[in-house]
Description:
This is Histidine phosphatase family protein. The chain is α/β, with parallel strands linked by helices. It has helices at 27-42, 56-69, 86-94, 111-119, 125-133, and strands spanning 2-8, 49-52, 74-77, 102-107, 120-123, 140-145, 158-164. It is built from 5 helices and 7 strands. Strands 3-2-4-1-6-7-5 form a 7-stranded mixed beta sheet. Strand 2 (49-52), helix 2 (56-69) and strand 3 form a beta-alpha-beta unit.
Amino acid sequence: MRRLLLLRHAKSDRPPGLLDFDRPLARRGQEAATLMGKYLKHEKLRPDLVLLSPSKRTEQTWTFVEPHVGGEPEIRRERRIYEAPVATLLKVLHAVEPEFHDVLMIGHNPGFEDLATFLIGHGERDNVHRIALKYPTAGLAVIDFAHGKWAEIGARQGRLERFVTPKSLGSDEDD
């Protein structure tokens, strides 16, 4: 079994004059990222590989999540994740070596929402619908696959195990 954890970066700030790539997390985003890190720990969702967009807000999201994850996952900064469409995100995922079973990707919308919608074929209907309506900042989709290799993953082959947002965990952030 393979497990993909799709974590959208937490809420970012928009300081004037900064490029989109360089936007930092807002205070609310820091709190939400910490909350999601604690959730991963509590639920024993431990990636063995982290694929990280190199933008400032995704890097900072990981900085707040990492202390709670446990273990020593391999970290890869993957430029192709930044503002990527589904086809590119899928190529990144297909390139993951078979020894990695639990992969955490931290990136952006609309790519993550589109990727989740593309991959999910089964799962709790309300959660599947929630993803299609809105994939908020710091939202986490946990998608399981029966396939033995990442390279074999395709459309509608995943089962949405859960979809968690800061708001569903009691935070006021969900945008």
